[in-house]
Design a protein that fits this description.
heterotrimer; A mainly alpha (316); B alpha/beta (249); C mainly alpha (288); A: 316 residues; mainly alpha; ABC transporter involved in vitamin B12 uptake, BtuC; 14 helices; B: 249 residues; alpha/beta; Rossmann fold; six-stranded mixed beta sheet; four-stranded antiparallel beta sheet; 38% helix; globular
């Protein structure tokens, strides 16, 4: 076990160094790639808190992403709030939605595949709402006016955007790490492994799962804020698409669901696939198809994810 | 001599599943500090009774009082907090966690700090003979190991009343003897025990009082020696007329 | 409003007929294998592209292509279960769910590569023909699709009820261990049932194509509809799937009528959520 622990620590260190690298780069293109990877990793980590540690396989995490994005965009464009306030607002909306969806579905006893489908339905319902309400700008979405400056949460230097993405990733990873050592995380794992046994030992299963979904939803919603502040635009397709939900799941599953470092590796793998194929073939669909293939291979051959190769093999 | 109010008082507990009356009107008292056994042939309603007492199955009728409080219809986690912890007949380990982590989930009920809970868990696990297995995944345990783990986890939760659902099933005679000693040790620490068991030798050795269930209803109650001699009990187990045949033979 | 209501109801029933065929396959797969086939929508998309290719390249009318596509989709479904979903999922609920998700991702994007993201439809001589029924004008293509779907549903029911294979499948659905004892091999039956469920999609794809369009995203649109039908009717129930499909078809059309084209589509996800939260066993109360 100590061999594995040492490897995990080395891996964490390597990843930390890797995150610092783009700050030294002057290539906006490279920093942009790094930012997208960091956002993917952060969102994958957010998914991982519910889907990995909690075993709550969500197919609809875009619901939280979109809520956060729209909360941020609406508050600043309609109500003139400072976009920095979008962060707590989005976290509140995402967390609140996670808590409500969790309490409703877990009280009804929904688990596994049914939970996955219900989250998908929520994301779809939100997408329809965003597409038809006035406050969200309907299908044409919301454009945020360009006001560069730290005070307006808009940065022309991509490295600032990257720094924010890394900050979110660090926050999500800190949350995941806390789960891996603390009492709440232990309760969450216990409920994932065996709900009845956990309840017999006094673990309030519905509350624990709902709290995990709330935490995961809040972090995902923060990702939505970063998206809006980077691209200054949001529409229903970007906010609530099934592809976004699936990408969060892929990142966590490929890297290693239920591990602290898994989503970081998963994001690297997914973006390595995307960027390599994009430079070779321009046809749309090739990279996402490969994600699907990799997902099948991982589930079939390496259910623990890529992190297993890196961290556990030394334990002999 | 007036007896103190029992720790657990079950009155008229009943539950049906579809057309089957799994338990019909169970009355049961468990005095603090005693070991009480609930026995009966397969399908008699023992596990359903346990599930109702621990909050996993809602009773159709009847009440459960524990330490002076009416806990009927409470959810399992609340009942665990109140001080009743059950084990499962078919062991339910947290398969992906280590043995020590499994026990720690129990310890977390009374101890919030992770390190302190882990310390308790390891100490308790070692006491129950799991010392060498503490860092193994629970999924890797043998049947006997899983039974031990089930017991350790429940004890770690610091119950006042422990519900043991067939902790001896599937064990070798030696392991049964060990477990009998273990259960007695638990009682001696002040934990009250209600158990179901098929291994009669263990029941006779442990129980202060025995309740016999057949087809969902109580047919006999008393100390072990009286129960062993009760013809109704023999018939419930071996079929009608068995007691007479045994007496003739 | 009545003038609009009646056509909406009739339109809902007609659409529901084809949904029934899509959902029958899904409910069969659930009833026998107890798995949630998330790839169902994507496989419908494959069937629709198959019918589209046959129609545009070979000039084969989609209705005439029903047997061919049903056969082809059976083979695809059988192989997919035997070589991908079975081995990858290993019978574990989450593993199977993610395996079918993986298959859906691969199929959707393979279609995107092969056919681009454009929507495609075909022209049939009967595409614009209408049938006069009292005050109503009903598109012939939809009527034919409805009739075809009901006929195939009936055939499927007869197959399950009357043939030895059908009985074996039902035996495995009820008691896999018991069926194994009398010499039925569950693993073979699973692949067979999955194949038959997907064969229904072959037929449904052909019946849908004349009145609908196909694009790589079409699977994503159908998947929740199909699951709504199935949970509404009760997972695993055949009559439930048919009734559920008609209700979903009607709900969808009424939603579009009263809430408008943009808010109307919220009905299906809301219905799905409501059924699962309030009555997860569905209207027909089959086992969950």
């Amino acid at each position: 076990m100590t061999g594995a622990a040492a490897r995990t620590r080395a891996l964490a260190l390597a990843l930390a160094v890797l995150t610092l690298l783009p700050f030294a780069s002057h290539s906006q293109f490279f920093v942009n790639l790094a930012m997208l990877t960091a956002i993917s990793a952060a969102l994958g980590q957010a998914w991982n808190i519910a889907g990995g540690f909690g075993g709550l396989t969500s197919f609809g995490h875009a619901a939280f992403f979109g809520l956060g994005a729209y909360a941020d965009a609406i508050l600043q464009t309609r109500y003139g709030l400072n976009p920095w306030l979008g962060l707590p607002a989005a976290a509140a909306f995402g967390g609140g939605a996670g808590w409500l969806i969790g309490t409703a579905t877990f009280r009804a006893g929904l688990r596994g595949s049914y939970f996955a489908l219900v989250t998908l339905a929520f994301a779809q319902a939100f997408g329809v709402l965003a597409n038809s309400l006035d406050i969200t700008g309907g299908g044409s979405g919301i454009l945020v006016a360009l006001h560069p400056g730290a005070g307006r949460f808009q940065f022309t230097d991509r490295r600032a955007g990257y720094a924010l993405a890394v900050a979110l990733l660090a926050l999500a990873t800190l949350a995941a790490w806390r789960l891996s050592v603390g009492r709440f995380g232990a309760h969450l794992l216990a409920v994932r492994e065996n709900e009845d046994a956990a309840r017999a030992l006094g673990v309030p299963a519905v509350r624990v799962k709902s709290a995990a979904l709330a935490l995961s939803g809040a972090l995902t919603a923060l990702g939505g804020v970063l998206y809006v502040q980077s691209y200054l635009y949001i529409d229903p397709g970007i906010a609530f698409s099934a592809e976004r939900s699936v990408e969060m799941l892929l990142v966590a599953m490929i890297g290693g669901a239920g591990t602290v470092l898994g989503p970081l590796l998963g994001a690297l793998v997914v973006h390595a696939i995307a960027d390599t194929t994009r430079s070779l073939i321009t046809t749309p669909g090739v990279a996402p198809m490969l994600y699907g293939v990799v997902l099948l291979l991982i589930i079939g051959l390496l259910p623990g994810g890529v992190v297993r190769i890196a961290a556990v093999r030394g334990d002999g | 001599m007036a007896e103190a109010a029992p720790l657990l008082e079950v009155r008229g507990l009943a539950r049906r599943f579809g057309g089957l009356r799994a338990v019909r009107g169970l009355d049961l008292d468990v005095q603090a500090g005693t070991i009480v056994a609930l026995i009966g042939p397969n399908g008699a309603g023992k596990t359903t009774s346990f599930a109702m007492i621990a909050g996993f199955v809602r009773p159709d009728a009847g009440s459960v009082r524990f330490a002076g409080r009416d806990i009927t219809g409470w959810v399992p986690e609340r009942i665990a907090h109140a001080g009743i912890v059950r084990t499962f007949q078919i062991t339910q380990p947290f398969a992906g966690l280590s043995v020590a982590e499994n026990i720690r989930i129990g310890a977390f009920l009374r101890t919030r700090a992770p390190a302190a809970a882990m310390e308790q868990a390891r100490a308790l696990g070692s006491e129950l003979g799991l010392a060498a297995l503490l860092d193994r995944p629970a999924a890797a345990l043998t049947v006997a190991g899983r039974k031990r783990l089930e017991l350790a986890r429940a004890l770690a939760a610091g119950p006042r009343l422990l519900l043991l659902d067939e902790v001896m099933a599937g064990l070798t005679p030696t392991e049964v003897n060990d477990t009998v000693a273990l259960v007695r040790g638990v009682r001696d620490r002040g934990v009250t025990i209600l158990l179901t068991e098929h291994v009669m030798q263990a029941v006779m050795a442990l129980a202060d009082r025995i309740h016999v269930l057949a087809e969902g209803a109580l047919i006999a109650t008393g100390p072990p020696r009286q129960i062993a001699a009760d013809p109704r009990v023999v018939e419930a187990y071996l079929g009608a007329g068995a007691a007479a045949r045994l007496a003739d033979g | 409003m009545m003038a609009l209501l009646l056509p909406a109801l009739v339109g809902g029933v007609l659409t529901g007929g084809v949904y029934a065929l899509v959902a029958l396959g899904l409910t069969l797969i659930y009833g026998v294998l107890h798995i949630v086939n998330f790839a169902h929508g994507s496989l419908l998309m494959v069937a629709m592209f198959g019918a589209w290719l046959l129609a545009t390249r070979l000039g084969l009318d989609p209705l005439a292509a029903v047997p061919l596509m049903a056969g082809a989709m059976f083979a695809i479904g059988w192989g997919l279960y035997r070589f991908v979903i079975g081995p990858v999922g290993r019978g574990d609920d989450r593993g199977v769910l993610l395996a079918t998700l993986g298959v859906a991702v691969v199929l959707d994007n393979a279609a995107l590569i092969a056919f681009t993201g454009d929507s495609r439809s075909i022209e049939t001589p009967y595409a614009l023909q209408m049938v006069q029924a009292g005050p109503l004008l009903i598109p012939l293509a939809k009527l034919v699709a409805f009739a075809g779907a009901m006929l195939i549903a009936l055939l499927l029911w007869a197959f399950m009820a009357l043939t030895d294979t059908g009985r074996a499948i039902r035996a495995v659905a009820r008691e896999p261990e018991g069926a194994a004892l009398v010499g039925i091999r569950p693993a073979r039956i699973f692949a067979l049932a999955y194949g038959i469920g997907i064969a229904c999609l072959g037929a449904a794809g052909c019946l849908l194509l004349p009145s609908f369009y196909v694009s790589p995203q079409v699977g994503g649109m159908f998947v929740l509809v199909a699951f709504t039908v199935v949970v509404l009717g009760g997972m695993g129930s055949f009559p439930g799937a048919v009734v559920g499909a008609l209700l979903v078809g009607i709900t969808e059309n009424l939603g579009n009528l009263y809430l408008g084209e943009s808010l109307g589509p919220i009905c299906v996800p809301l219905l799905f959520i409501a059924v699962l939260l309030v009555r997860p066993t569905g209207l027909f109360g089959a086992v969950r």
